[in-house]
Amino acid sequence: MKVTEESDMAAGDNAQALAGLKVVELGQLIAGPFASKLLGEFGADVIKIEPPGTGDPLRKWRVLKDDTSLWWHVQTRNKRSLALDLRSEEGQDVVRRLVDEADIVVENFRPGTLEKWGLGWETLSERNPKLIMVRISGYGQTGPYRDRPGFGVIGEAMGGLRYLSGHPDQPSVRVGISIGDSLSALYGVIGALLALQERHRSGQGQYIDVALYESVFAMMESLIPEYDGAEVIREPSGSALPGITPSNAYPCAGNNSADGESTGGEYVLIAGNGDSIFKRLMLAIGRQDLADDPRFAHNDGRSRHAELIDGAIADWTRQHERDYVLDVLEGAHVPVGYPYTAKDIVADPHYLAREMIETIRLGNGESLKVPGVLPKLSRTPGRVEGGGPALGQHTQDVLDELGIDRETQAKMHERGVI
C-alpha cells in the first residue's frame, strides 16, 4: 500500500504524461471535477475555481469529517483551489487571463451560464485559439432540452439505464453511485485527449460537447438494434443477464430456511456463459448430464433454458458455504466472485498488490485510504498528491503567477471577489 505525502506534490513532474498542461476547472460537484481530477492525476496543473466563502458544494456532500466531505479528498486531489466570484466582472477578468495561458477548460454549468458571464466558448477561443473546452451538461449544448437542468440520475433515466435496473414488476432502482456523471467525465477526458492530439496537426483548439444522457446511452449495448431489428424492448431482469446464460447471482448455504425465507446468507456471482466454461461449471457441480446435453452446447440453446440451468446451479450453491463455492469454481477455472463491500475491498490482497488502495496524509497529519489511479501507464504513471485543498488555498499563488500585485489582491478580497 503506497503512502503519499502532500510534500510529494512537486516531485517527478517530468515523469507525468500530461505535465506542462494547464487546466482551468469551472465546474462543481461531480462530472466536471471528476474529469479534471483524471487530468490532474497524470500531471496537468489543474486550477479549480470555487465561490469564495462556500466553495464547491461537494465539500459538504456525503460523509463529513472535520467539517469536510471525505469524498472531497478523492474528487479534488492534485488540484489548486482558487476562490473567485465568477459573477463579478473582476472575477471574470481573472478567468479570461487564466484561459489565455490554459490548454483546457472544464465546465459543467447549464448551457448559456458561461455565456452570460462573458466566458463562453466564442469569447474564450477568440482570446486563445488553441484552447480546448470540455462542456458537460444534462442534455448537451444544442437541442430542444438544452436549457433544462440535468443531474446524473436524470441522465441515467433518459439514457435507458434506470429502466433496466432492478427486478421485473418492481420499481426501478438507481445504481448506488453517480454513474451518469462519471461516465460523462470519462467521455469528456477522452474528447480532450483527442482534441489535444488533433491540435498537434492543426494548431487549433475545439470544444467537446458531452451530455449526461448520451454518455449513459452509449453504454446500452444492444438496446436499440434489438428494438429496431426484432421489436424487442429490453426489460429489467434482476441479477440475471438475459440472453447470456448462465450469468447470475446464486444463494449459498444459509440464504434460505426450509420455508424459503431469507436468513441473511451470502451470494456468489457466477459467469459460466462461455461454451467451454459452461462444461467445466457443470462438471464442477456434479451435473455431467447438463455438460453433455447438446441443447446447451452454445449460448442460444442455454438461454432458451436459462431457468433450468440457473436452478441446477442454485441447487448446488445452496448446499455449500460461500468460501467452498469460490474454492471449487476457481479450481475449475470458472469466473466466480461475490459482491464486495468497502471492507472487503480495502482488505483484498489483489487490490493492494495493484496499488488500487493508497494511503494519503492530510494537512492535519491524519492518514486516509483513497482509490488509486487509473489507467495504469507503464512508463509515465499517474500519482496522488495528498488530499483535497482547503478553500482558496492557492488563490495567492495563482494570482501572483498572473502578475496581480498583493495590493490589488487585498482590495479584491475586501470586495469579496476572492
Description:
- The chain is α/β, with parallel strands linked by helices.
- Helix content is 38%, strand content 14%.
- It contains 19 helices and 14 strands.
- It has helices at 31-41, 72-75, 89-100, 113-116, 121-127, 152-158, 161-164, 179-202, 212-217, 223-230, 275-284, 288-292, 299-304, 306-317, 322-331, 342-347, 349-353, 395-401, 406-414; strands at residues 2-4, 22-25, 45-50, 64-65, 68-69, 79-83, 104-107, 132-137, 207-211, 247-251, 267-271, 336-337, 357-361, 367-371.
- A 6-stranded parallel β-sheet has the order 6-3-2-7-8-9, sandwiched between helices. The chain has a 3-stranded mixed β-sheet with strand order 1-13-14, with no helix packed on it.
- Helix 1 links the parallel strand 2 (22-25) and strand 3.
- Helix 1 packs across helix 8 (179-202).
- The protein is elongated.
- The chain starts with a strand and ends with a helix.
Q: What descriptors fit this protein?
A:
six-stranded parallel β-sheet, 418 residues
Oligomer class: single chain
- SS elements, strand count: 14
Strand content: 5-15%
From the alpha carbons, calculate the radius of gyration and give it in angstroms: 26 Å
Alpha-beta content class: alpha/beta
Shape: elongated
The whole-number mean of residue pLDDT values reads 93
Give the gist of this structure.
With 418 residues, this protein is an alpha/beta fold. The chain contains 19 helices and 14 strands. It has a 6-stranded parallel sheet with strand order 6-3-2-7-8-9, with helices on both faces.
